[in-house]
Amino acid sequence: MADETTTLIDKTTALVDDAAEKALKLKDDVLAGKFSLSVLGFIGGGITAVISILSIFSKLFSLDLVDAVITIYLVGFGVCIVILNSTEVHEKIKISPTYRLKLFYWCKFLKRTWGRGLFYFFVGTLLITNFNLVNLITGAYMLLLGAYCLYAGHSTATKLSELKTQPEETLKKKFKSVATDGKISAQGFKELAGKFDINMNDVEASIAFEGFDENDSGSVSLEEFFSGLESSGNEGLKGIAANLSV
Q1: CA–CA separation, 208 and 186 (whole Å)
Q2: What is the C-alpha to C-alpha distance for residues 25 and 22, in angstroms, rounded to an integer?
Q3: How many other C-beta atoms are found inside a 10 Å radius of the C-beta of residue 158?
Q4: CA distances in angstroms from 72 to 13, 39, 57, 110, 112, listed in the order given
Q5: Which residues 6+ apart lie within 8 Å of 128 measured at CB?
Q6: According to the model, what pLDDT value does residue 86 have?
Q7: How far apart are alpha carbons 186 and 116 in whole angstroms?
Q8: Least confident of 18-27, 140-149, 221-230
């Protein structure tokens, strides 16, 4: 009996250690930018919408009208999050980019990483108020995703500020060296930063790129690039960096 108990304890300890090791690796991978914010957001929005749709009728039948209204809101918020993050998966899901542009038009703060982070925080807090296991897990996921958005935005802003000191002619020359047909993609933005010894991961490059791609066209021209640098007046890139990190 004692041997069986010892074996059980050893197996449990091994499982906990393995889970802790995998959790640390996952944290390192997330912080290193190996997971796209769009994919993580799409997953969170989809789960939020599905679990909220499934629980609407039970809320209505129990005459819990306050929770029912919150759940209906969560359906809408989940759908908005899916649309917001549809760019990297729309070829499979077939979501029209028009809906995303309309969402940015009516909710301009969602264009910025800090805006998405705060929105995810808000949705996460609504989810955990339902006090059931699935909602608690999903709410915790959205809260962590919101924190990750704020962290990634701040990290991106810090690295972007280094571009401000570069001469205009040098920026033009190196921009053209990575451009295709006079425009750059998010990956091109990463390469451009690398030419100035600014090490960006894929998530940071995507955040920086979206800050300059104001019309959501999927590419940034030289004119858009310099317009982005100057769009915050005398602050230059500092103002854009503030938008990404505040």
Answers
A1: 8
A2: 5
A3: 14
A4: 42, 24, 10, 20, 25
A5: 135, 136, 139, 140, 143
A6: 81
A7: 19
A8: 18-27
